[in-house]
Design goal:
Number of strands: 9
Distance between the termini: 27 Å
Structural class: alpha/beta
């Protein structure tokens, strides 16, 4: 395991101190990674802002070291970051993200904890066959559920559709390209009938990487869109949804 700084994440094992973290809270948004670090962690140290992949080392009140890191948007960027995080010694990763509900009973502002993913992602296909299961770690997942219960946060546990694109791949037609391929027309209703809960863009590849690389992974996402009503992200409730996802993750690892 190299102590040199990695090309993408901008830090190496030698930057993590004498008691290096083994847990990472991974956000797509660098501002979310910063928010987690400065709201919930102590003795924070900025490790890198390389390529906008902001990473912070900090400590929970119980003294446990934690990384708050950034994956960037989508599975290709996440796959690079996760590969390098594993090389610096990370053994557990919880993705904290946002998602769109495709079930009428899952409202904006709640959270979805993914038990597994329907993985429709090109990056994952470079790591394992299409048939390889994209399953979350059961222990981290149960810890997230128990945390949401303890915090009395409205939460839902189930399967996530993890796709590569925000617009076409999630059957959005209110975009620069209103014409979807035939294979995508009606796919949201198909997924709904398969009891899939939500759309997002990273956890399928994360879960497959965990299985292949040998680390534990889980995901919790704040619901920011209700796709049975509208294609739009409900910005007025985004902060609440994200903060509830963060609080759940922090409680689960504390």
């Amino acid at each position: 395991m190299s102590g040199e700084r990695f090309y993408h994440i901008g830090f190496g094992q030698n930057d993590l101190g004498s008691t290096p973290p083994t847990m990472t809270l991974l956000s797509g948004d660098p501002e979310r990674a910063r928010l987690i670090a400065y709201t919930y962690l102590q003795d924070i140290r900025l490790l890198s802002e390389n390529r906008g992949l902001n990473s912070y080392l900090g400590y929970l009140p119980n003294g446990r070291p934690i990384l708050s890191a950034t994956s960037g948007m989508g599975a290709p960027s996440l796959s690079i970051v996760v590969n390098e995080l594993v090389q610096v010694g990370i053994k557990q990763i919880i993705r904290i993200g946002t998602c769109g509900s495709i079930q009428p009973h899952i409202p904006v502002g709640s959270i979805v904890i993914s038990s597994a993913a329907l993985c429709r992602q090109g990056a994952a296909n470079d790591i394992a066959p299409v048939e390889y299961p994209a399953a979350a770690d059961p222990f981290l997942t149960v810890a997230l559920v128990k945390a949401a219960q303890a915090l009395q946060i409205e939460h839902y546990l189930g399967i996530t559709a993890s796709v590569d694109t925000f617009y076409e791949g999630q059957e959005r037609t209110d975009s620069a390209n209103p014409y979807l391929m035939r294979s995508l027309n009606g796919i949201t209703e198909e997924y709904r009938r398969l009891n899939i809960l939500n759309y997002e863009m990273e956890c399928g590849t994360l879960f497959k990487m965990a299985g292949v690389y040998g680390f534990a992974a889980a995901a919790v996402c704040g619901v920011v869109a209700q796709r049975t009503i509208t294609e739009e992200v409900i910005l007025s409730q985004k902060d609440m949804a994200v903060n509830q996802a963060i609080a759940t993750a922090i409680y689960s690892v504390s």
